[in-house]
Design brief:
The chain has helices at residues 6-12, 19-25, 29-34, 43-64, 70-81, 83-92, 103-107, 114-158, 161-171, 211-233; strands at 178-185, 192-199, 202-208. It is mainly alpha-helical.
C-alpha cells in the first residue's frame, strides 16, 4: 500500500512505525465532526507535543549554550516554539497539504491557516514521542528546528536590519520597504536566492543561500546607503 505521507516523513526526517499516529496528528477537529467513523482528532496530541517540544528545545539550548543565562535561554526557547514560528516551520515542510480537514474548513482556507498548521506541528511532535520516544523527536528537532534556531541566534548576534530599515524608511516618510525575489539559481540542495529591496525611491540587490538571509543582506546594504545619504545631506531623504 502506498504511503500517502512519504514526502512529509522525508521532510521531517522521521518515518513513523505506526502510521495511524501520524494520520491522527494531521486530523483537524472539523474532519472528525463531519466523519462519524472518526473517533478522535489531533488536539490531545497537540497538548503532548507542546510539552515535549518545550522540553527538547530546553535540553538542546542548555547543552549547547553553557554561557547563556536563564533569561536568554527562555527567550530563545519561546521564540522557537511560538505559534508563529511553528506555522512557518509547518509551511516549509508542506504540512498544509497533508491536513485532514472538514469540507467547510477546507473551503475557508483551513489548509493555509496558521493556527491549524502550528497545532499540527505540535501534534506531530506528540505523535513522534509516542511512536519512537525521545530519539524520534530529537531526529525531527535536528531536521526541522535546528535551522530555525540558528537563524534566531544570528538575529540576536547581528541585529535586525530589516526592522531597522523599515523604521528608518517610515521616519523619512518613504513607507514600508518591499522585497522581491528576482532570481533563484543552483540545484535544489544548494540554492542561491537573489533578492531586491525597494526603499525610499532606490533599490539594492543581495544574494545568499536562503531568501531570509538575502533579504537581510539587501536590507543592510540599503540601510547603510540611506543613512550615508542622510548624513551627507544633513536632512531627510
Amino acid at each position: 500500500m502506498k504511503n500517502p505521507y512519504r514526502q512529509l516523513e522525508k521532510a521531517i526526517g522521521y518515518r513513523f512505525k505506526k502510521k495511524a499516529l501520524l494520520e491522527l496528528a494531521l486530523t483537524h477537529r472539523s474532519f472528525r465532526y463531519e466523519n462519524p467513523g472518526v473517533e478522535d482528532d489531533n488536539q490531545r496530541l497537540e497538548y503532548l507535543g507542546d510539552a515535549v517540544l518545550g522540553l527538547i528545545a530546553a535540553e538542546h539550548l542548555f547543552g549547547t549554550s553553557p554561557d547563556a543565562r536563564e533569561g536568554d535561554l527562555s527567550k530563545l526557547r519561546s521564540r522557537l516554539t511560538q505559534d508563529r514560528k511553528l506555522a512557518q516551520v509547518g509551511r516549509a515542510i508542506g504540512l498544509g497539504a497533508c491536513l485532514r480537514l472538514g469540507r467547510g474548513e477546507e473551503k475557508s482556507g483551513g489548509a493555509e491557516r496558521a493556527s491549524n498548521i502550528a497545532d499540527a506541528v505540535e501534534a506531530i511532535i506528540g505523535a513522534a514521542w509516542l511512536d519512537g520516544g525521545a530519539r524520534a523527536v530529537h531526529r525531527i528537532f535536528r531536521m526541522v528546528f535546528l535551522p530555525e534556531l540558528d537563524d534566531l541566534r544570528t538575529l540576536d548576534e547581528e541585529g535586525n536590519p530589516k526592522g531597522e530599515l523599515q523604521e528608518f524608511a517610515q521616519k523619512q516618510g518613504c513607507g514600508i520597504p518591499a522585497y522581491d525575489t528576482i532570481d533563484t539559481a543552483g540545484p535544489e540542495h544548494d540554492r542561491t536566492f537573489t533578492v531586491q529591496v525597494y526603499a525610499c525611491g532606490s533599490s539594492w540587490q543581495a544574494s545568499a543561500g536562503s531568501k531570509r538571509e538575502a533579504e537581510r543582506k539587501a536590507a543592510s546594504m540599503a540601510l547603510a546607503a540611506l543613512e550615508s545619504t542622510v548624513s551627507e545631506r544633513g536632512d531627510g531623504v
